[in-house]
Amino acid sequence: MILQESGEMYLESILVLSKEKAYVRSIDVCEHMGFSKPSVSRAIGLLKNGGYVTVDADGYLSLTENGREVAEKILERHTMLTDFLVSIGVDREIAAADACKIEHHLSDESFEAMKRHASAQKNK
User: Is 124 inside a domain boundary?
Assistant: First the structure.
């Protein structure tokens, strides 16, 4: 299954929520993302069928190894891009919104180059 941008956003949200809460349910994802229960339910079903998420008998969501790998990659991109944009003078809220748009489309090569540049700037 090829993951769409929205699927990546769901995985990132589940990862973020799992760092804040012991257990994550679909309703938590609804509230975090501002989406309806039917939309989240459909997305979770697709992610489950794709092998990215598991849902236990109590309705708790867990990322599979593959799901966690994707979520961590997207979260790293989001965090680094937000920080990068803030460092060049963009308001944090705008930077976070822009990072969310960029993170799904940026090539690995460009992202790695940005990380190297940001790291070199910190070490100056």
Answer: no
Number of domains in the chain: 2
CA-CA-CA-CA torsion for 101, 104, 108, 114, nearest 10 degrees?
20
- Half-sphere exposure at residue 78, Cβ-oriented, CA atoms within 13 angstroms: 19
Whether pTM exceeds 0.85: yes
For 63-85, the three-class secondary structure string (H helix, E strand, C coil) is ECHHHHHHHHHHHHHHHHHHHHH
What pLDDT was estimated at residue 119? 83
Strand order, beta sheet including 60-63: 24-25, 60-63, 53-55
Q: Tell me how far apart the alpha carbons of residues 26 and 42 are, in angstroms, rounded to a whole number.
A: 10
Tell me phi and psi for residue 123, to 5 degrees. -85, 0
